[in-house]
Design goal:
The chain has 390 residues and is of the alpha/beta class. The chain is built from 14 helices and 15 strands. The chain binds adenosine-5'-triphosphate (ATP) and magnesium ion.
Length: 390
Amino acid sequence: MKEIILLKNGEIALKGLNRSVFEDKLISNARRRLEELGKFGFRKAQSTIFVEPKDEDIDLDEAVDILQKVYGIIALTKAAVVEKDFEAIKETAIIYLKDELMEAKTFKVDAKRSDKSFPLKSPEICRELGGYILEHFPHLSVDVHNPDVNVVVEVRDYAAYVHGKQLPGAGGIPVGSGGRALLLLSGGIDSPVAGAMMAKRGLEVYAIHFASPPYTSERAKQKVITLAEKMTAYCGRMNLFVVPFTEIQERIKDDCPEELFTIIMRRYMMRIACRIARQQDCEALVTGESVGQVASQTIQAMACTDAVADMPVFRPVVGMDKEEIIKISHKIDTFETSILPYEDCCTVFTPKHPRTKPVLKFVEQAEQAMDMENLIDRAVKGTECLKINR
Ligand code: ATP
Ligand code: MG
């Protein structure tokens, strides 16, 4: 029996004239993610994308698993492909959905007939196939409101398709359809979640990480690489930039008031991130900050960091509780890596009493006493670019 996967677009269906641009983006993203399994053919028709395996030994369940993490899909299902003959459709339905029907107590049949030349109308398909299923599975009864199994028959242009329960997709809009952003990726819980949230809104996400060897270890860097690799399941491939940040941190420590260390360090992160972002055609920065989560994440601190950014700074978790963020980090499978206990450059030289409500004027004054341009240039030049393409 020939089997394919049907993808239902979510919000894309609302995009009017741009719809085909979004669909094409979704198809190219899905195609790339499925490459590891083999070759697939893609075809779009009426807010459905048909994904057909072209190699013999492809495991469609694995493909479904991958596609459930691709943004832009609201629901998906495997389906049996049948010739447009009602006898064949009936036979296929009871064989293909046997396991689901055996386990269920109630079912209903839904029919969609977009090929109007098919001799049975939709209500007739439902009635006839419903009766046939009841004959073969006498333990079942029909429930049109809340059935355990929804048997769906779609009679389309080239063939008919039979499937059961649809699985939820990841929702959102296709990665890359809204431009590209640069995520400040630490080793923590919040920033991978922030990146995935912006990817869900259609942004392609690149990442930048600040490392301060020897204060931070090779293992800490490896952890960030692992996080980026895990993120690709949802965000797609990305470039990860690792910035040598030691000299800058040491200079800040030597030359500025201790209580302003954290905010000034963040401002230099922002400046460097903006430089790399522009080089990479990224049009926004993304951080994992959440108001009030730690002393350095206050309105005033965010105002001070925004003041040096010459592009929008998105903070998608800004209003979320840690518990809510953790829930998403489990979903995108970054939590276990995030909690590995390696030091981050933010924990190096942390002042005992950081200024929680920094005043921009004083921060700027403190920075004027430092001559950083050369160090920034050196850090940008020494930045390593890793291609993350799991
Ligand atoms: P996270 O869980 O993402 O590490 P956090 O709660 O530990 O966040 P902070 O350490 O204050 O918070 O960092 C706030 C944000 O600053 C992070 O979410 C991240 O976007 C950015 N950031 C912090 N440290 C780094 C770093 N070493 N490299 C890149 N970005 C960083
Ligand atoms: Mg952190």
